[in-house]
Known about the structure:
The complex is a heterodimer.
Chain A: H1 3-10, H2 14-20, H3 23-34, H4 38-45, E1 55-61, E2 64-70, H5 76-83, E3 102-105, E4 108-111, E5 124-126, H6 139-146, H7 156-169, H8 175-181, H9 192-203
Parallel strand pairs in A: 1-5
Antiparallel strand pairs in A: 1-2, 3-4, 3-5
Chain B: E1 5-7, H1 12-21, E2 26-29, H2 35-40, E3 48-51, E4 61-63, E5 67-71, H3 76-81, H4 83-88, H5 90-97, H6 102-107, H7 110-115, H8 121-124, H9 164-170, E6 174-179, E7 182-187, H10 188-191, E8 210-217, E9 223-230, E10 241-250, E11 253-262, E12 269-270, H11 272-278, H12 285-295, H13 307-324
Parallel strand pairs in B: 1-3, 2-3
Antiparallel strand pairs in B: 4-5, 5-8, 6-7, 6-8, 9-10, 10-11, 11-12
Helix pairs in contact in B: 11-12, 12-13
Bound molecules: flavin-adenine dinucleotide.
Flavin-adenine dinucleotide (FAD) is lined by residues 27-35, 72, 99-100, 104, 107-109, 111-113, 115-117, 161-163, 205, 210-211, 237-238 of chain B.
Amino acid sequence: MNQEKRKLKKGISRRxxxxxxxxxxxxxxxxxxxxxxxxxxxxxxxxxxxxxxKKNISFVLNGxxxxxxxxxxxxxxxxxxxxxxxxxxxxxxDHGSCGGCTVLINDQxxxxxxxxxxxxxxxxxxxxxxxxxxxxxxxxxxxxIDHDAYQCGFCTPGFIMATxxxxxxxxxxxxxxxxxxxxxxxxxxGNQLKILAAVKALASIxxxxx
Amino acid sequence: MRKFSLxxxxxxxxxxxxxAKADGQRVILAGGTDLFSxxxxxxxxxxxxxxxxxxxxxxxxxxxxxxxxxxxxxxxxELASSPIVQKNFFGLKQAAQSIGSPQLRNVxxxxxxxxxxxxxxxxxxxxxxxxxxxxSRCFALNGRNKYxxxxxxxxxxxxxxxxxxxxxxxxxxxxxxxxxxxxKEMLLADFFTLPSVSxxxxxxxxxxxxxxxxIVPKPSSHLKSTYVKFxxxxxxxxxxxxxxxxxxxxxxxxxxxxxxxxGVAPIPxxxxxxxxxxxxxxxxxxxxxxxxxxxxxxxxxxxxNAYKVDLASVLLxxxxxxxxxx
Lengths: 210, 326
Ligand SMILES: Cc1cc2nc3c(=O)[nH]c(=O)nc-3n(C[C@H](O)[C@H](O)[C@H](O)COP(=O)(O)OP(=O)(O)OC[C@H]3O[C@@H](n4cnc5c(N)ncnc54)[C@H](O)[C@@H]3O)c2cc1C
């Protein structure tokens, strides 16, 4: 979703609000609403920081702005699967050793099982559910189908997200770069060669969409 | 899921003030790639998670006249792709690049990599109450110890898992530690502690302290560095043995060589005996191999890890020859 739509969804942003005010009024607004009282800052500098049992976060998930409450020890994977019911991101090892839970945060591949959910506040998260447009598959998804690049399919969402991150970083990676870019994902069915074939095909698509 | 409280200081001042006064068990969170595993398995049971992510002052690399300054929250990906690192500290680049997978390097931080906890399977298994967790024995000593220490073990036989640490020590890096009392610097080599000194933790960091920066001194014009890592799998694995080496190379002579081994001891293991044997002499492969064998005579392997001695010997030789050829 683009900036404009996001703003509409959230309602008027603080910046718009400030922009809409004359500079005189801005001064008043600042002093009454935006500047924390000096004593609060002082309190914080003395180390009196609030202990939060929960945290409200908002972030862009697959193009939509969402707000949700999370717990400090909650992983992004847990948030996605258990609270938001996006079960395309797989929980396999839950310890950063398999790649099944790979998602993109601000375009970078990460393991959602080890990523604190509260830290996606203000960020942009893309999961496997965010790739297809209606019935039209994303080119990376299509390539995996065309090359029969899966067997049981459990590792596939993670592989597809890692592939997408790789291709967003570099349109036409070399074979070595593909291997290095995907070495954080494991296929236990042993289908690596077909996965490699799919990604190689994508890599040679010049100016392709990913 | 266990319940924790979250604390989010906005800057270093707030952080160290909080660390100075807070009671209750708390733990610092950087990328979380190690911490979240430890929390899930209840190896660590803090009450409070202290999130560093708002401390802008801890992010990124800064090249200064006499040193490269690396903020503790710099990610391993950023470190590996930094042009300064690639140009001046090839070994550090290799070490960073060898860590885990892209997903881990994108999130894991330099500070977190140095402070990460050991991977000993008894330590990581909630069912084993080993010495490191306050129990009364080291299960590896008479148990399965293929991945354990050949130097510096004894009462606890973990190996330090960090790839950055040996490399940074070979480059004579310092670290900066902050607390409410101010900041202090120490050599990274002096940061790590053996189990005989502190059984429950692997370094000197106090509960009221935070690691803020790594400082790598400007290299002399002849300085070359390398990192040779051997893993059981081809990729995405901790070192069975690794060798970080740095020296001033002049023809086939190494001056001020520093050789630091990873994967062999509870701390990054400097092999000064080896350094002394090769320093200033004309080196060829045979000579390096003989020196490596001699230097490794101090190793005390356990029942299942004598292979690490052979591995270390080969990697020491390779690292030496690689310095000379670069
Ligand atoms: C599957 C897997 C494979 C891996 N392979 C490798 C490998 O090959 N080589 C390697 O070196 N590492 C490897 N790692 C470890 C990984 O590099 C570390 O998890 C990562 O560097 C830790 O950084 P982090 O920012 O995520 O730390 P966190 O998980 O946030 O923290 C780790 C520890 O350090 C403490 N800490 C963090 N930052 C600070 C600070 N600034 N001051 C004081 N204390 C701090 C935390 O309290 C915690 O105890 C691997 C990890 C996994 C899960």
